[in-house]
Write a structure and sequence with these properties.
mainly alpha; 29 helices; 590 residues; two-stranded antiparallel sheet; 4 strands; single chain
Length: 590
């Protein structure tokens, strides 16, 4: 093992012999109650080793914050020893204490957790961690950080920089980590990175080294480690390779029947995200072949969170039903388990447990139906009734998902949409007063587009506040072509369903949209350009610069393997549809 920079020796004394006997008693105990009885009898005589052993054993045997039995005497004893002049603790004691606190729950041990993390802040200490202790420490800090963020009134800082510094010293020795240690490191870093965007960039520089180390130990990973590691790589946005995809797929095929429903959902979700970042070799990830049949057959096992995750996987990974799949051996095969059949099975499960969903879960499940244009009879109606009670808990992304889906599937539920309009208006007004908005450009424009497509009435307040928010955002963010065209098309439609339509309220917004569109005209496709021209025409707004840019001729060159000459297609950016003024209504395709 590595040289320990922080360590304490003990002379063999009668007192130490007593402490050794205490540890043996703790090791023989077989229940939480047995451990608690021993703690109550001897805790005042426990040294640091006894205390750590007792806390570790209690956590392993299943103690949690729901237990009525009080651990305060043990926690107070450990805190006292950690704070003493001659504490006698080593890095393994700190990592074990934090692991146990993460297992039993942060709420009962917050003071001890803060002290333990503070102790690790010195270079002398964190450089003393060995491979196992780093992995345990990272996992524990990430778990505790997640728990503390649920309780906003009792949060702790993640101290992610300590995890980074400790790992930095071992990055050249990752082969010495066990498969569990690597999994813990990956999961811990990914969990910490979800809290703050800055943490993700902090850890991404280690991702390739971790990926290589994990690839070498793929055969040693158990089901939990596979699930945690794949989920972590997806969260850290790790760039994988075709070789890694093939190796991981083989391991999953071998072990997927042993995955729990949570592990199956996490693994499938992670693989789908990794595939999205693998443009050059996305075919190496055959998600349909890997997961669809298992997701369909085990649909009744999924809880709300798992169901939301696998619905997303199926929605983004489905291929046309007549497509040919290729298995890991390169053999073509026709899948009888299409995305539509899997989605229908998942929607049946959703209908059975719909009363248990939170706002994020149900909006994700509804979004998947919209993405695939696939919904069972009565599914949207049933989900709308549940959503009515969740609207007040929806964030910007949830509102976006629900409005976009119901508009895309042309399903207008008056009660739901009316409540969403009220909630969105209130949220935007409150955020405007605070000087910031949690509605990203994509969220805002999808909502406006959806409401416009559904031809929702009585949206005066929402339209005006959304217009102001968008104008302000356009000074800070760069809207992409889809967002610009969706916003213009949606505002144009809503302007004619307002109680008091006033076209004079919109020229400033449409001029800003056209200015932005003119600057990015080469990024627009024909549909986006056509929708924007249609909207400006309906609003009686003429922007010479954008109109000229949208009607100019564009040359696009293509090369093909079997043709030596480049192929040039010459076309008008807007597709010519609005120039001929034919088929205007198709501008509402969304």
């Amino acid at each position: 093992g590595s040289k320990r920079k922080v360590s304490r020796g003990y002379e063999h004394t009668p007192e130490l012999s007593l402490n050794i006997s205490f540890n043996k008693e703790l090791g023989r105990a077989r229940s939480v109650n047995d451990i608690l009885n021993l703690i109550n009898r001897h805790v005042k005589k426990y040294n640091i080793v006894n205390c750590v052993t007792a806390l570790q054993r209690v956590a392993k045997l299943g103690y949690s914050v729901s237990n009525n039995d009080d651990l305060s005497t043990l926690l107070d004893r450990i805190t006292s020893l950690f704070s003493s002049k001659n504490p006698g603790y080593e890095p393994r004691h700190i990592s074990t204490v934090l692991w146990a606190c993460a297992k039993i729950g942060f709420e009962k041990s917050s003071s001890l957790v803060r002290l333990a993390i503070q102790i690790t802040g010195t270079e002398e200490f964190y450089m003393g961690f060995n491979e196992h202790e780093i992995s345990v420490f990272t996992w524990a800090v990430a778990k505790i950080s997640s728990q503390s963020r649920i309780r906003q009134n009792n949060r702790i800082d993640s101290h992610a920089h300590i995890c980074e510094l400790a790992l930095k010293g071992k990055i050249e020795q990752l082969d010495r980590f066990t498969s569990q240690g690597l999994s813990n490191i990956c999961w811990g870093l990914a969990t910490l990175s979800t809290h703050e965007k800055t943490e993700k960039s902090r850890f991404q520089k280690y991702s390739q080294a971790l990926l290589i180390a994990v690839e070498r130990k793929l055969g040693e990973l158990n089901c939990q480690e596979i699930s945690n590691t794949i989920w972590a790589f997806a969260k850290l946005e790790v760039a994988t390779s075709a070789r890694f995809a093939k190796a991981v797929s083989a391991v999953i095929m071998d072990k997927k029947t042993y995955l729990t429903s949570q592990q199956l959902a996490n693994t499938a979700w992670g693989i789908a995200h990794l595939k999205e970042r693998s443009n050059n070799f996305s075919a190496a990830w055959n998600i349909e072949g890997l997961f669809f049949e298992d997701i369909r057959n085990r649909s009744q096992e999924f809880n709300g969170q798992e169901l939301s995750m696998v619905c997303w996987v199926v929605a983004v990974s489905s291929v046309p039903t007549n497509s040919v799949l290729v298995n890991n051996s390169g053999i073509q095969m026709t899948s009888k388990c299409t995305g539509e059949t899997v989605m229908h099975r998942l929607q049946e499960r959703a209908l059975c447990i719909r009363s248990f969903f939170n706002a994020q879960q149900i909006s994700g499940i509804v979004w998947a139906a919209g993405r695939m244009r696939c919904a069972l009879d009565g599914f949207l109606e049933a989900m709308a009734k549940v959503l009515l009670g969740k609207v007040d808990f929806m964030n910007a992304q949830d509102i976006d998902s629900v409005v976009w889906t119901y508009a895309r599937l042309d399903h207008y539920d008056a009660s739901l949409i009316r409540k969403i309009v009220e909630h969105t208006t209130k949220s935007l007004e409150e955020e405007k007063k605070l000087g910031h908005s949690l509605f990203l450009p994509k969220n805002l424009t999808n909502i406006i587009w959806g409401l416009g497509k559904l031809k929702v009435r009585n949206t005066d307040k929402l339209v005006k506040i959304a217009r102001d928010v968008m104008l302000e955002q356009m000074t800070k963010y760069e809207y992409n072509p889809r967002d610009l065209s969706n916003a213009a098309w949606g505002f144009a439609n809503l302007s004619f369903t307002m109680n008091k339509p006033n076209l004079s309220k919109f020229p400033g917004l449409f001029t800003a949209i056209a200015d932005a569109a003119q600057a990015r005209i080469d990024d627009f496709n024909a549909q986006e350009c056509s929708k924007l021209l249609w909207a400006m025409d309906k609003m009686h707004i003429y922007h010479p610069g954008f109109s000229e840019a949208a009607t100019k001729t564009r040359k696009t060159f293509y090369t093909f393997d079997n043709i030596k000459t480049k192929i040039c297609l010459e076309h008008i950016v807007a597709g010519g549809r609005n120039i001929s003024r034919a088929r205007e209504e198709t501008g509402a395709t969304g």
